[in-house]
Amino acid sequence: MEVTHASTLFEALSSPIRLQLFRLLVRFAPEGLVAGEIAKHLQLPGTNLSFHLKGLLHAGLITVEKEGRFLRYRANIPLMLETIAYLTEECCAGHPEQCERFRAQSTVAAAVLPERCCK
After folding, report:
1. Cα dist from 60 to 6, 22, 63, 81, 118, whole Å
2. What would the DSSP string read from start to end of 32-87?
3. Measuring CA to CA, which residue among 71, 75, 17, 66 is closest to residue 44?
4. Which of 19, 26, 6 is nearest to 87 (CA)?
5. pLDDT at 104 over 80
6. Which domains does the chain have, with CATH numbers?
7. What is the percent of the chain where pLDDT is above 70?
8. Tens-place pLDDT, residues 11-42
9. Torsion sign (Cα): 93, 100, 22, 17
10. In this predicted structure, what is the pLDDT of residue 116?
11. Which secondary structure element, helix H or strand E, spans residue 16, and what is its range?
């Protein structure tokens, strides 16, 4: 992943609403949700939701598929994982002992951390 691509993704997620929206779709992966369901979960009017969905679609963080009269939105999980890898690939400059110390200080559950962030 190139830095310009990564910055586009982070810019798209910089809105609190878009971040909540993306996390909601991650929670409902792989099935995703139709727009009306998203609006209910986030308590957003349709026009506001449409604006935020467009931003995430443009960045490639979500996909959309037409289902009859409805549009189903899904999180792009492979891209999310690539982004996490981009953030952690150079962690601790290859010194695993530092990573272990940072893991211990983190409030993140070990199960959701990458298995190993140092090479």
Report:
1. 11, 11, 7, 13, 28
2. -EEHHHHHHHHT--HHHHHHHHHHHHHHTSEEEEEETTEEEEEE-HHHHHHHHHHH
3. 17
4. 6
5. yes
6. 3-78 (1.10.10.10), 91-119 (no CATH)
7. 94
8. 999 999 999 999 999 999 999 999 999 999 99
9. negative
10. 60
11. helix 16-27
Encoded tokens for 31: 């099935």
Question: Is-contact 26 77, C-beta < 8 A?
Answer: yes
What are the tokens at 34? Answer: 């139709």
**Tokens coding 95:** 């010194």
Residue keyed to tokens 């150079």: 90
Which amino acid is it at 3? V
Q: Which two tokens stand for residue 48?
A: 């506001």
Any idea what the Cα angle at residue 116 is, between residues 98 and 106, rounded to 5°?
55
Q: Is the pLDDT of residue 119 over 60?
A: no
**Tokens 């609403």 label which residue?**
17
